[in-house]
Amino acid sequence: MYDFSIGVILESFKQPIPVALKKAREVGASGIQVYATYGEMAPENLNAQKKAEFLDMLRSEGLVISALCGDLGRGFADPEQNPELIERSKRILDLAKELGTDIVTTHIGVVPADPSEERYKIMQDACFKLAEYADSMGSHFAIETGPEKAPILKGFLDQLHSTGVAVNLDPANLVMVSCDDAVAAVHTLKDYIVHTHAKDGRHYASLEDVPVKPGQVAKRPYLELPLGEGDVPFPAYLKALDEIGYHGFLTIEREVGDTPEKDIRTAVDFLNNLIR
Q1: For 175, what's the count of Cα atoms within 13 Å in the CB-facing half-sphere?
Q2: pLDDT of residue 119
């Protein structure tokens, strides 16, 4: 029915890389996304031998890399930190090329609604530099959606006049955080979408409405949920992706939950039932 590939974020399994790669294959994924900001997959911790060993493990499981995660956790709103963060981001993009993918996903911070704000200009200057470098390699830094509504992000990207900085569409973040329409966002951001996350969730009217375990207190008015149990309208969402000509990865991200492997397997089945 649809031409999408299913991937999974390797860290979602909460297992060592060799084990997680096997599990990714076992649940039916054809690709993986892996963090390259810390630990054994960070560029500074990988020599040629380790890269070759990782690629051998990847290929032996019949998998490819959908993207690297290059989120350094600080955004690009601090002009004093940005030179270091930009250089680290470039090294992750270099690594992505070596490992066979042109996409690095990241967070840049919340884009202000007012383009005249100083923070907006600082973030845009950083993104100009990232876009220029990515363009020189035929690659993309893909901003994850959610912190701001899609029209604000589109306006920000339009001013870069490049797809070197593009979009990693996360429909759950749109629903949970910015209370945006995931289907409308697909059409708004259609010129920039190069990767997507398959995640679900719900925004609640108040903290008191958020279901939590006994003894816990909700800290945010939203909750990530297994695919199909939240408010992302997946049939309409996937139809919209197909309509704009996106035929890349739906990469499953499961950041919470006590049974990640079970949830990921269920998510793969859920997506396969919609796209096959």
Answers
A1: 22
A2: 97
Contact 70, 103 (CB under 8 A): no
Instruction: Summarize pLDDT for 121-147 with one digit per residue, the tens.
Output: 999 999 999 999 999 999 999 999 999
Could you tell me how far CA 274 lies from the centroid of its own chain?
Answer: 21
Residues 189 and 191: their CA atoms lie apart, in Å, by 6
What does pLDDT average to over the chain?
Answer: 96
Q: Which domain holds residue 169?
A: 5-275
Total number of domains constituting the chain = 1
Pair of tokens at residue 178 = 């910015």
Count how many Cα atoms sit within 13 Å of the Cα of residue 198 in the half-sphere of its side chain. 35
Beta strands per DSSP E along the chain = 5-9, 31-35, 64-69, 103-106, 140-144, 165-169, 193-198, 200-203, 222-225, 249-252
Residue 45: CATH number of its domain: 3.20.20.150
Q: Which residue has the tokens 């020189």?
A: 136
Contact between 141 and 108 (Cβ < 8 Å): no
Chain segment 196-235, per-residue pLDDT in tens? 999 999 999 999 999 988 888 899 999 999 999 999 999 9
